[in-house]
Amino acid sequence: MTVIIKKIEVLCLVDPTAGEHRFEGSYQNVVVVVHSDNGEIGIGESDAPPSVIKSIIEMPDYNSLAGGLANILTGQQLDDPTRLAQEMYDRTQWFGRNGVAIHAISALDIAIWDLFARSQGKPLHSVLGVKHHDRLPVYATIYPLEDTADKITAQVAPLLEAGFRHLKVCVEPWWCDHDLVQQNLTHLRAIVGPDRGLMLDVAQEFQRLAQMEPFLGLLQDLGFNWIEAPFPLDNLADHIKLKAATSIPLGVGDLGMTTCKEFVPYLTANAFDIAQPDLTMFGGLSEARKLASMLAPTGRRIIPHGYNTDITIAANIHFLATLPDVGLIEYSTSQSRLRRELVHGLAGIDADGMIAVPDTFGLGLTLNQKLIAETCAKA
CA 292, CA 43: separation in Å to the nearest integer? Predict the structure, then answer.
């Protein structure tokens, strides 16, 4: 049966408890809902400024190479999500070869894949490829990390009790005190034990290698599994030097990369070990599949970024379920209601620190309409 895209809906949401959270976007969100003529919907999101994404989707056409995404999609046949992704890319080239236009395309691409799978009565992973895993390991991202041993214990203990086997922490303002960093990270390793994974997200808090170097020995001694986003992406030179200076794997791609072509200079320079695209900013599932094909011959891992709601987590789960290697699922511990309550349907973390791959239709999620009514920003 032919399915036609009927309407695009953009929801700009704001958690009423939102405040100043420094490097934190989970208290705002933009959700896209793609409606079809068969009554089904698909949902997606982007970890990007909601009002900007809304404008790009709802804008009137400027010319044939600068179209509003809703205009491009409305009336189209839902025959091939990759075709629709390519058409959105081609018809926004006037203002979007990378960057925020791709963020908007990403949200819609995830929603289109969700709708495509739902319309066939299949889980998303079954239309993306072959499912290799029934469960995937999860890691909790702690942000911000407290600055004293007692507070860190209180912060981490519930996560260990919940079953998490891997934890990621971020560089914080108190990293200006090297002794405090050594004290707190050593304490963190002691309370999680030797068998749990620890990772560090620099979140580009450092601009150059000289700022990172004083901590490399400590991170090595404490057995950190990777260093993520160490420097701004235009500083390729220091990524190369950092990779030569440590055996800790380096992850890149979560902050700023929006297409496969942006990984190419890093791949050519052998400047990373782990690709960490955010599917909600990296062209969605369509571009992530291209990245998987590009990196497969190199042996590099893909561990997608996912500091957003269960929509992002579900997209990551379905995508990673189709890759032969076992990838980790990022699980934000943000207290935002949007992060915790926006959708229903995802399984919880089990006692082994794993999460089940959904076998319900599409992403396997339903929107919390009550929360949306409470948090939807007025136009």
Answer: 23
- Whole-Å CA distances, 143 to 88, 203, 327, 331, 339: 34, 11, 21, 11, 13
DSSP secondary structure string, 11-42? EEEE-TT----SS--TTEEEEEEEEETTS-EE
Please tell me whether residue 136 adopts helix, strand or coil conformation.
strand
Select from 107, 112, 104, 111 the least CA-distant residue to 84.
Answer: 112
In three-state secondary structure terms, 77 is strand
Phi, psi of 27 (to 5 degrees): -90, -5
The model carries a pTM of 0.97
- Whether the Cβ atoms of residue 110 and residue 85 lie closer than 8 Å to each other: no
| Rounded Cα gap, residues 341 and 369, in angstroms | 10
Q: Which two tokens stand for residue 363?
A: 């992403």
Report whether pLDDT(22) > 80: no
76 near 256, Cβ under 8 Å? no
Q: Are 277 and 304 in contact (CB under 8 A)?
A: yes
CB of 360 closer than 8 Å to CB of 40:
no
Task: Please give the structure tokens belonging to residue 287.
Answer: 């571009």
Compute the chain's Rg from CA coordinates.
20
Task: Write down all domains in the chain, each with its CATH number in brackets.
Answer: 5-126+370-375 (3.30.390.10), 130-360 (3.20.20.120)
How many other C-beta atoms lie within 10 A of the C-beta of residue 265?
Answer: 12
**Direct distance between the N- and C-terminal alpha carbons of the chain, in angstroms, rounded to an integer:** 36
Kindly list the strands in the beta sheet with 5-14, ordered across the sheet, starting from the edge strand earlier in the chain.
5-14, 28-36, 41-46
Q: Is the bond leading into 232 cis (omega within 30 degrees of zero)?
A: no
Give 166-205 pLDDT, tens digit per residue: 999 999 999 999 999 999 999 999 999 999 999 999 987 8
